[in-house]
Predict the structure.
Amino acid sequence: MNENPPVKATATSARVIDALLDLEGATVTELTDYLSLSKSSVHNHLQTLVDLGYVERDEWEYNASLRFLEVGTTVRHRYRIYQAGADEVRALASAGFAANLVVVQDEAAVCIETATHSDRERIVEIGDRLPLHCSAGGKAMLAAMDHEERTAVLDDIPLEYHTESTLTDRSKLLSHLNEVRSRGLALNREEWRDGVRGIASAVSAPDDTLLGAVCVTGSDEHLSGKTLQQDASGLVLSSANRIRRRIRQE
């Protein structure tokens, strides 16, 4: 993120919105303390956002409005993998899995669609940002990038420790990504969160442009043994192949 944006007022409005999300709603005083800004500045930004429809006020409390849902839904439809893969996510959920689509944005794997079987916990929500180096979808997308793009991304992201299984050594991660690329399938064995596993396959356009990845995420109890190595793996690969075919037919 640019720490010295050319239009500081816009950056401050963005900070106010982020604070409202972090605090799950707040008063002017609470935002003033949270952001270390003057009360008049916070009030002016809030009033402008209310007038534009991005923030709503209830008594003394302010909240982000559903305008962001409208914006996010519109943006999501522009992603080719969403148009071609949303039905596949629902099919994976019907087969008994928690499934999602992710894309790369700002050095993270961002979830743009998710569906969960009725008896499965929803671990990843729409809008969640997962680390590229230790989530199944993130590793699948890193592996699908060409050498130059992967190098540029890895230069920009910290290989942060999340669990005891997280690969934080760059050379070991690169070796692992080569294996992922050969298999066409990435596994996450509690590398992102303890007790959580995942499996993913990247999807690229016919010109090799990376579009995203289709993933299954679940508890280590559910995604283990034959379920992980055969059932989920086969379904994810089949889903990715069908998405690719749909994109080729566009």
User: Anything to note?
Assistant: The longest strand covers residues 210-219. The mean pLDDT is 94. The first helix runs from residue 8 to 23.
